[in-house]
From TrEMBL:
Transmembrane spans: 21-39, 59-79, 91-111, 131-153, 165-186, 198-220, 232-252, 280-308, 320-339, 351-374
Protein family: Belongs to the tellurite-resistance/dicarboxylate transporter (TDT) family.
Subcellular locations according to the entry: Cell membrane
Stretches of the chain forming a coiled coil according to its record: none
Top-level taxon of the source organism: Eukaryota
Keywords: Cell membrane, Membrane, Transmembrane, Transmembrane helix, Transport
A GO molecular-function annotation: sulfite transmembrane transporter activity
Organism whose genome encodes this protein: Obba rivulosa
Name of the molecule in the record: Sulfite efflux pump SSU1
């Protein structure tokens, strides 16, 4: 089996940049969660080899983040016509949600440096707090912006539904778990800031998690009615573990913080009762344990589905494999945190085993991705397959005055066949859907 294509078949770098998609940020997510697993490993957590390994992966992830972000920016600078095509794609556009989730793992890594080695001291902690608020704003914009885009711009049907629908809303859970870590670090400096952080991200979690559960319910219906998705999409089933793991981990982190901060004053009755913090923590623990149990059920269903599919066909290497790592890593963190809260060897053992499996998968996918990265075959934007660069560059919109009216002409394909479309004013809007349809020669009637 040939690992790397002949040099003559390598994609040039300009073409690779053109094919960079938002799914590349799943690489940042996967690498970042592996670092978190090492920082939170339940056994020999303070050992020097483990800490330096985590530190090395953190620096690797920073380099990957800089590379992917640079390529993403260059994609839309060099090929601005790709943006409306991407945004109108009902699947690939949802991967925008990977950006704030990947950025959150970097904030978590930097926070670990600050807490474990005292890097930057108190000032650096507040800088990280500010960056975390920025990531939170982006997560909120992506979550609600993309859900509205799905409703208004995209055309979906349940038969073709995949767990990728979850990607826009999972950033809310990821940001809230990051908030739990940040609130815990802030307690030593400001109880007010710590309580503010936990309270705000309880709200975020309670907005994002129910929405994720509703989408999961629709996906279960889709599986029962229409059966398993096609082989290239079967690996996306693990995405469902993401909101369960991150949601449960966030509930435990923020619940524990609140239990140590409340009540601010003892006045006898809720919410100023001495038991307020413990009651909230108990509720958080119950919800987190429920999510852990749901995760066990979903792991069984998903492993059966993947095994059944692999018996019939192979799933070629693609960016879809990177989607395996973050959800399983999030679930591992939930197991480890349950072990910490309960002092349970069982949960710690399960968390350690699942963490090792996740890290082994990350290492395998990382190594197997290197040859396809070298020859450029892994750079493959699905929404550009049917749109050669010559056709994309052929879309122009020009206006000129004809009598008292403004006339617009869309030049579509490289064959030179014009597709005229008139409008009454220069200020008439041309929707992203029309632009995407123009690329396929399906212009809406004037």
């Amino acid at each position: 089996m040939q690992l790397i294509r002949p040099y003559a078949e390598w994609k040039p770098w300009k073409e690779r940049i053109r094919h960079v998609t938002w799914s590349w940020h799943a690489v940042i997510m996967g690498t970042g969660v592996v670092s978190s697993l090492l920082h939170n490993f339940p056994y020999h957590n303070s050992s020097v080899p483990l800490q330096y390994t985590a530190l090395g992966i953190d620096f690797l992830n920073m380099g990957l983040f800089a590379f992917v972000c640079s390529c993403t920016v260059l994609t839309y600078i060099l090929f601005p016509e790709i943006w409306p095509i991407m945004l109108s794609d009902p699947t690939q556009s949802l991967y925008i949600g990977c950006f704030p989730m990947g950025a959150a793992t970097l904030v978590n890594a930097a926070l670990a440096f600050n807490q474990l080695w005292g890097v930057g001291g108190r000032r650096f902690l507040y800088v990280l707090w500010g960056l975390w608020w920025l990531d939170t704003v982006i997560a909120l914009m992506v979550a609600f912006g993309m859900v509205c885009t799905m409703v208004v711009l995209h055309e979906h049907n349940v038969e073709k539904m995949t767990p990728v629908w979850l990607l826009p809303v999972v950033p809310l859970s990821v940001a809230s778990s990051s908030g739990g870590l940040m609130a815990n670090a802030l307690k030593a400096h400001s109880t007010s800031f710590s309580l503010l952080t936990s309270t705000f991200f309880f709200g975020m979690l309670l907005a994002g998690l129910p929405l994720a559960v509703m989408i999961i319910a629709v996906y279960v219906q889709r599986l029962i009615v229409y059966g398993l998705p096609s082989a290239p999409l079967i690996l996306s089933a693990f995405i469902v573990l993401g909101p369960m793991g991150q949601g449960g981990w966030s509930l435990l982190l923020n619940g524990q913080n609140v239990s140590e901060l409340l009540p601010l004053h003892d006045q006898g009755s809720f919410p100023q009762s001495l038991l307020t913090g413990q009651m909230l923590f108990a509720s958080c623990f119950s919800a987190a344990f429920m999510l852990w149990s749901m995760g066990i059920c979903w792991i069984i269903i998903t492993c059966f589905s993947v095994a059944y599919t692999l018996r019939k066909t192979r799933v070629p290497l693609s960016m879809a494999y990177w989607g395996l790592i973050f959800p399983n890593g999030a679930y591992s963190l939930l197991c480890v945190q349950l072990g910490n809260v309960l002092g349970s060897p069982f949960f710690r053992g399960v968390g350690a085993v699942w963490s090792c499996i996740t890290m082994a998968v990350w290492l395998g996918v990382f190594i197997c991705s290197i040859p396809s990265f070298i020859d450029g075959s892994i750079f493959n934007a699905a929404y550009l397959r049917d749109f050669p660069e010559s056709e994309q560059a052929g879309i122009t919109i020009s206006f000129w005055k004809e009598g008292s009216e403004e006339t617009a002409v869309n030049n579509t394909r490289a064959t030179g066949t014009p597709a005229p479309s008139t409008c009454t004013s220069v200020h008439d809007l041309i929707s992203k859907t029309d632009i995407a349809n123009a690329l396929t020669g399906k212009l809406s009637p004037a």
